[in-house]
Amino acid sequence: MKKCLGCGVILQDQDPKAKGYVNSLDQDYCKRCFRLMHYGDSVIDLRSDIKRGDVIKLIKSHDKPVALITDILNVSAAFKDDLLEALKGRQIILVFNKYDLLPKNTNIRRIEEYLETMVSEKFKDAKVLDILITHHKDVYFKKLFMETLDRWSIKEVMFVGNVNAGKSTIINKLLESTKLTVSYYPSTTLNINEVALEDHLFYDTPGLLDENNLGVFISEEKLKDITIKKTIKPLVYQLYDKQSYFIEGLLRIDVLPKEKGSIIFYIADGLKIHRSKLEKGDDYQTKHLSSLPLYLPFDHLSEYDLKGKSLEFEIDGLGIIGFKNIAKIKIHHDQRIRINVRKSVL
Ligand SMILES: Nc1nc2c(ncn2[C@@H]2O[C@H](COP(=O)(O)OP(=O)(O)OP(=O)(O)O)[C@@H](O)[C@H]2O)c(=O)[nH]1
Ligand SMILES: [Mg+2]
Predict the structure, then answer these.
(1) pLDDT tens digits, residue range 159-211?
(2) Which atom of ligand 1 is the closest one to the Cα of 181?
(3) Which residues hold their Cβ within 5 A of ligand 2, which is an ion?
(4) How many angstroms is it from 237 CA to the middle of ligand 1?
(5) Which residue among 49, 212, 225, 306 is least enclosed by CB atoms within 10 Å?
(6) Sequence-distant contacts of 35-38: CB under 8 A, at least 24 apart
(7) Is 38 inside a domain boundary?
(8) Which domain does 320 fall in, by range?
(9) Which sign, positive or negative, has the C-alpha torsion 287, 288, 290, 295?
């Protein structure tokens, strides 16, 4: 059976509404990949029903070394127990991708330390061969990656990771081609997809879905607004008294500073932040929230006692929010949203 070169789905010429459709079986790319490559659109329903458990099974069913691709903005969500279990005993090359999205003045040494600590905590049962930090315009990546393969005499590599981490983009970079389909829609790659580079074989795989990632459960047409596509320009707010911050209608943060504090938002360009005095927060929420284009019901409240520590909150799929010299915060959010707290790195 013939597979689509872009996403690995089995091609079929029977059902135009089903995955893998082509007008004629001599075509190499399914209609969905063709549309994504040439128009980047969502004329075709792009939501896929690839289950996380099935991808984990696929990863387990191979014993090949793995390149684990991770979005550097979403590190905590990348190393879940089911994946770590599937990678036990395997040779792993860890690739932290999308470094270009971090703000210009980011201290690379602090990022490296944070990642190294994370990796030593999470990967006790795997053989981590190398840790690479990269981005799609990194001209040294191919050389470094191929050197690692040569050093360990590795010929076949399975590329795995969360949806949208950049697996297909990285393989394209190694191939120096645009063969594989890439897009900011989750689950672009639909099936295991084998590509050769000289005497190496690379396996692209469907990404692992994370149902707590805003990018996975928000509607397709709103995805473009929350996706961080360019180098982040942090938005910094100083505050002296109690305030409420709204990121569109997606999140509300009530903040109680210690004398003078600050909040830093690392989120998509164009997302609007509304700030008010704390006592006016409820009023704004009641009057305006449900009419905002980007809106989720706030059915959950998370409270944190920061005690003035410098901390960063990773909000999966939305970005990172940093707090300095803040006593307490309350975050009002949709219960599906997951928040990970870490020491300040950015
Ligand atoms: N800014 C930036 N964007 C990137 C980088 N790498 C990938 N992207 C973008 O991230 C999105 C996802 O890339 P893909 O290569 O399709 O990701 P994937 O891991 O193959 O995703 P699935 O197939 O859905 O699992 C695309 O919009 C890419 O253009 C990077 O280094 N920097
Ligand atoms: Mg892909």
Answers:
(1) 999 999 999 999 999 999 999 999 999 999 999 999 999 999 999 999 999 99
(2) 16
(3) 167-168, 188-189
(4) 30
(5) 49
(6) 36/6, 36/181, 36/183, 36/185, 36/188, 37/6, 37/178, 37/181
(7) yes
(8) 235-343
(9) negative
